Amino acid sequence: MSELRDFVAQLVERHGAAAEPLEADRLEVLAPQPLQKALGWPELVELSFGANRPARAIPIGLEGDWLDRFGALLGEHGRWAERQLGPKGAPEAPGSPERVLDHALDLPNAVWRLRGQTATCTRCLMLAFRYSALSDEKREGLLWIGFNLATGAVLDEVMARMQPLLAAEQWQAPDPDIRRKAGPRWEPAVLQARARAQLDHRIRLELEPFLRATRRRLERDRNRVHEYHEDLREASIKRLAALNGARGEKPEADRRREQLRVAAIEREYQAKLDDLRHHYAMRVVVEWVQALELYVPVQRFDVLIRRRKAERHIRLDWHPLVRMIEPPPCEWGLGIKRTRLVCDDKLHLTEPAGQAPCQACARPWCRACSPARCPRCGAAAS
Ligand SMILES: [Zn+2]
Ligand SMILES: [Zn+2]
Fold first, then answer.
1. CA distances from 137 to 134, 210, 282, 284, 287 (A)
2. 133-156, pLDDT tens digit by residue?
């Protein structure tokens, strides 16, 4: 719990308190009046974050409403931050750029050539989202998505490897020169579209096991309900069959009663299915928590792409901090994997599905050139 203690110490110090760590995960706080009022504390208070606590100390933990109260104190602070990472000076370069690129680029219908390499810096954006999925059970989590704003690359893996560095390295405010050199931010609409697509994909991945388990429970309950009602119905049908051919007032009344019973069983079965649907319906809420703009050194490769007679330049960054190259740019699709097809007209790089044949006329077309419909027959993109 000492992480929580350090967090609380820093937070209350920001609000004018003096905080003194004591042994056994305790914290002594001298709180100014506004803070006393906000948190319901006396002027001098002892907080305990561990299991063993003296009677005078207030227990603080992840349970209860303390996190909400600290959150209220935090307000909108800390939603956005920027920092620079890595040593000053020229970034390290990979030993064999061609080999690195060979690993990064998989272009089945085009060729590439390395045209140049520059030591520079880039602006990355990391966005944190909290999600919660609620059905008959609940799952919650935090996930990060990241982009290199200069090259457009998705940085899932690079970011994952950078996380330990973020925790270990001293916080460095970005140098104004570096900030200028790193290039502009994205337009809000571009950022929103790209973030939404990545987020959708990642949340689906994260929730897949939970969804599968929920579906299994639903299936099990549905089978049970079905079996139970099917047995009842079959018994009634059998009784009806036995009455077949019998005449007179009593068999007629019995037949009528069984028919009503079958109808009632069917109604009850439908109602039980509705209950199950309601019980297992899943609601997923995703909330943006934090944005971090990160300035990092990179080796930028200038790569010439050639498809038939046409050519085009693209840029890919190698990240010396994690010794890793990012995936190539992608103008249609998520761009997480490294295979790209190149289109004939504008040499767009897309995921293979972005050049797939049209479902109506069977001719391939580039979804980056024409996102909504096939340019040949006008069929809508699926
Ligand atoms: Zn078509
Ligand atoms: Zn295209």
1. 6, 9, 9, 12, 19
2. 999 999 999 999 999 999 999 998
